[in-house]
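Section 3.1: Structural characterization of target chains.
Under the original work plan, the team committed to producing a structural model for every single-chain target entering the pipeline before any wet-lab resources were allocated. The record below documents one such target. The sequence was received from the expression subgroup and is listed exactly as submitted; it comprises 667 residues.
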Amino acid sequence: MKSNEFTAAIRDRRLTPWLVAVGLLFPAVSHAVDRFDLSVDLAEEPRPQPRFWQSTGMSPADMLLTRDMQMTLKMIGDSHGPAIRYLRPHYLLDLVKLEYTDKGDPVPDWSLLDRALDPVHEAGILMIFELMGNPSGRFDDFRESRQVWAWRDFIESLANHLMDRYGRETVEQWYFETSNEPDIHPFWPQTHSGFLNYYDASSEGLSAANPRLKFGGPGVGRFLSPTLKALLEHCDTGTNFLTGERGVRLDFISFHVKSRPLEMVRYEEHVVDYIRRYHPRLKDVPLMNNEADPIGGWGIPRWWRPGPWHAAFVMQSIDLHNRIVIDRLGADLSIAAGDNAFMGAWDKRTLVARFLPGDNYIEQWGSSDPGGWKPWDRVHDDRPVTERFYLVKKPAFTAMSLAALLGDKRFVVRGFPPLVQQVDTYRSEAPHLGCIATRRQDRVIVLICYNAPAMNLAVGRDGDGAEPAPSQLRIVEQSVADLSIDVRGPGFSEGLLTRFRIDDRHGNPVASWREMGSPEDITAAQFNALQSAQDPVIVHSEPVAIRNNGIQVHLRMEAPSVEAIVLTADDARMQPGAVAGLAEFTYSGLEGVPVTYLSWQGDRPGPLVLYEVYYSKPGEDTYRRVSAAGILDRNFSLAGTQPGGRFRVVVKNLFGDAGTAAELNLE
């Protein structure tokens, strides 16, 4: 790079993180690399590994009506695992309109809500259904008895409609939750007492439709909020407004803690302590931190969001919730997951980076303001509708597909410095490092290790969060570590060791985009290149012999990074099945270029397999591989396809054995 080009690149804030990553802007200083000798004994009694992280959310529900959000839902549903099982949108009930009979009885019009939820259901995603919104502005004061009873009847009719449309068994797997963050005015504009009446009416309406429907809350946004304390007291010993009975059912307790995991689990511990001290009858109620994000404000640019740091955050959150909330506290943790299914550019809190024609930051129809609530000044949303776009998975999303590799039996990893409890955090001599060790039902052993530099997330260069601050860069530079893991008791003597990696150079499409010059309007060829760069990369795969019932694995953990270690026994080698259900969906990319989205089915349950996608242009006899060499997710997108083109999807296990491929011709 020439001197004047380098200077211009520094001025372009979009390039700065990449320059940092490759050492051009701030050369790394020499320092001692931390080394840790770790061990895990697979002969010990395992602990369960619940999948509490498989959830996400967004705001408002209007976004579910947009093409780009619907494509994101497809990507979620077709991810490995799937990576995400639950979706939690705000303002769902604003999509319901109330019409009235001649007698003045309300008749709900569900059509818009159905249009929003149908793609969620078709993608196989379950709902955390917030009873949030105000149908036709009908409910403005829940202190009035008539409105409380009317809400109870409305919720009963809502639940019956949902069960009729999506099936009783499906809806019984959903969670119904109160309005989001009722302790923050833009989300709950009514009174405190009205909220408790609303809660009672919601509970009774759901129970009338089906007593098996789960309901809880309050999903507060502030730490140990008075609203949380009031609802706990009300459900424990208060009086139900509608029945006069003492106490109200509370099927789960939800709250939001946004922070780094070391602080997050400590604040959650305070909540658990409060419940056990003041409401011991509720001590076994399941817990949800269903906005367990690094920091608030989905739309505020942060330089660390597009790359591997956010992927490492996902793994660290899983690890620390295991070690503190589940193991140490013995709490029943249902959900501890991010709220990151918004639509936006690289540095927003999103699962995918969205490219739009001309300006990736332009506001689009249906989107919320940077805080997550509906914009105050928009009676009629006249912003442009998203019609042409490209979507690229970010490492935070890819990491959740990687986490789906984890088994349901977990083992203790020893050798890291201990976690020390303090007032508002946990401390450690290696706060950025950790490993999760599991065994799957197919006997495959999976360890996932992470390096999430423990920096202050809110600072930035000159106060701009889109630029890394020198203090953050120093921490990243000093966080590289070498890990040596002694895996004992695998139970077999010959196997295959495979390592998947996400770091600055692997599974990090934003780095590839910056190498392209950070184009706002990417071409079809550039989009296809980014598709090939978005999956975890197999950096190592070789047969291994287990000596003395153990094996040593050595890792160089760059900062930040995630690495999955998969150990498969030779005698557990299974022939992959057939790729089934291959289907395509076409939408418009930038400049009207057609994008073909492929999806297919895999073996459920089945062996751990990877996929490769091949394409043949019209008139060609040969296929060329268009995907990376082995992808986890059961979907792939290719721009610039043409009628007469042909796809082939090949399935392989980690040993390289191929199953039956599937082919599809474009009409």
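Confidence is low (pLDDT under 50) at residues 1-30.
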